[in-house]
């Protein structure tokens, strides 16, 4: 029995990925059956439609740039952009596309990577955020601080405020780590609400936080910010009284590197904490006497 190959469209309709052919103006000339499964549009609805209409508005400019490179003879085997499904939800698509000059069209195969992109975003978030509080972690703070320092111009500056909770150890010791975690989460939320949108708050230790004020502020403004942060911490519902010691450091006066700034602010915080403990001990002794 002679073997007869099936028409190409039968083979293409078996593929799990979308196969598209688009004219130089970006109109769909052909889509396979998987196109409907992925994008929600039946082939007859897609044909003649402008491809860009389905692309997420924020990705249209980049998509046009890539399409131009494809038509100039640069195949794109791993291009990603976002589309809008017929029912309105977002899709992440990875394309392998090339220009076929002998046919005057672009040929592209699209693989949906929405779930993969979601997992990538989750990993990216974990790499730069504290898992308990959702605040920036030390790595993200360091990056933000170095970026802010590089942007400072003459006559400007920035500040870092190093916070260490007072009384938190007693909460952990008397009420357990679960209660302590709830307090830390509440503190993180209050600190986030107490800063401006362009400021950064990070958790850098068990009960240690750093706030980056990236704009040219003066010492009086730093103190005002510190007072607001202390008020936010004191307002946290807690099984035991909670306070905070705050050390401040300004760039470039207190250090010209991220490490120097953080060490200076940490030392200022420790000095404040030591002075507060000495004062509390003196008060207790006078009361006992």
Helix and strand pattern: HEEHHHEEEHHEHHEEHEH
CA-based gyration radius: 29 Å
| CATH domain class name of the largest domain | Alpha Beta
CATH architecture of the largest domain: 2-Layer Sandwich
Low-confidence stretches: none
CATH superfamily membership of the largest domain, which one?
Reverse transcriptase/Diguanylate cyclase domain
The total domain count is 2
Strand coverage percent: 15-25%
Query: How many strands, which pairing sense, and closed or not: the largest β-sheet?
Result: 5 strands, antiparallel
For the biggest β-sheet, the strand order reads 2-1-5-4-3
> How many distinct beta strands?
9
Question: What structural category arises from helix and sheet content?
Answer: alpha+beta
CATH topology of the largest domain: Alpha-Beta Plaits
Provide the helix percentage. Answer: 40-55%
What best-fitting shape do the alpha-carbon axes yield? Answer: elongated
Total helices: the number is: 10
Rounded mean pLDDT is: 93
Architecture overview:
By secondary structure, this protein is of the alpha+beta class. The chain has helices at residues 8-12, 34-39, 43-46, 60-71, 114-128, 138-151, 168-175, 177-194, 219-234, 258-288; strands spanning 18-22, 28-31, 76-84, 90-100, 105-112, 158-166, 200-203, 208-213, 243-251. The longest helix has 31 residues, at 258-288.
